[in-house]
Write a structure and sequence with these properties.
Number of helices: 8
Distance between the termini: 185 Å
Helix content: 55-70%
Strand order of the largest sheet: 2-3-5-1-4
Radius of gyration: 45 Å
Largest sheet: 5 strands, mixed
Length: 280
């Protein structure tokens, strides 16, 4: 009887231990699934704005982020010389031409060049270009402060990278295919956002470091009215017509020779007829 009682007690103890371990396993799995729940993604997105705001306070630029841009249009006495001066100035200031076009308007040719130079050299370039103008038609300069946007983009990149690291850690602990797919989907979205913000940050840095100046200049052509212009035009047209006539003669030389030969033959025939009439 005592042996039976001891055996029952032992079996009861084993059963209790087994149930305890099973409960622990179930609890562990529940916690794991809770970690990979989509609610985490929603919570991350909900708190992202706050994290960005907090990060903004930590990122303080050394100086204001200013984007300088401008355009100037003017008349010059010598367009070719002005073009050379601009090219030399751009080289000296370690800049480059991002656009170079020319177009014809009536009796004059207009040039447009888009120049990118280091921001610190913008004023020097503008001053040098202005000196080549005989008459400035228009000049517009703008300075856009992008400090706030620059800081915001930096903060968003930092925050999203932190969230990305959290998801990578969760991915290592994932136990099911469903959890893995959910986490990888969130990671893909985060990576796309990070690359987009990094592209924007790169663009802002480019605009801040290199200022843009669009220069349009032209050389005033000869007036299309007045006696002097009419005489010059008539002389030029007359000379061109004379050259065209001479060239036309060279093209028609076979016909001219044929006409001369016909005239000679006709004269000989008439001369013989007259001689025959006289003899008769």
């Amino acid at each position: 009887m005592k042996k039976t009682l001891k055996l029952l007690t032992l079996m009861l103890f084993v059963a209790l231990v087994s149930c305890s371990k099973s409960g622990e396993n179930i609890e562990t799995k529940a916690v794991a699934l809770e970690e990979f729940s989509p609610q985490d993604a929603s919570a991350d997105k909900a708190t992202e704005a706050k994290q960005v705001s907090d990060t903004n306070e930590d990122i303080a630029p050394v100086e204001r982020m200013i984007v300088k841009e401008g355009n100037i249009r003017f008349e010059t006495s010598n367009a070719k010389e002005t073009r050379e001066i601009i090219n030399n100035s751009v080289k000296q200031l370690n800049g480059y031409l991002s656009q170079d076009t020319s177009s014809n308007y009536g009796n004059r040719t207009e040039y447009t060049v888009e120049i990118r130079v280091p921001a610190k050299s913008f004023e020097t370039l503008l001053e040098g270009v202005s000196k080549t103008a005989s008459k400035i038609d228009s000049k517009n300069i703008s300075a856009l402060d992008v400090t706030e946007e620059f800081i915001d983009v930096q903060a968003r990149i930092k925050t999203k990278k932190e969230i990305e690291e959290r998801y990578k850690e969760l991915l290592k602990k994932a136990n099911s295919v469903e959890d893995i797919l959910k986490i990888e989907s969130e990671l893909g979205t985060l990576r796309a956002d990070i690359e987009s913000f990094e592209g924007r940050l790169k663009y802002l840095k480019s605009r801040i470091s290199l200022s843009t100046l669009t220069v349009t200049f032209y050389e005033k052509g000869e007036s299309t009215t007045g006696f002097g212009y009419e005489v010059s035009s008539a002389f030029s047209s007359g000379w061109e017509n004379l050259l065209s006539f001479i060239i036309g003669i060279f093209y028609m030389w076979p016909f001219i020779l044929l006409a001369i030969a016909l005239v000679i033959i006709i004269r000989k025939i008439r001369k013989r007829r007259k001689q025959n009439k006289t003899n008769s």
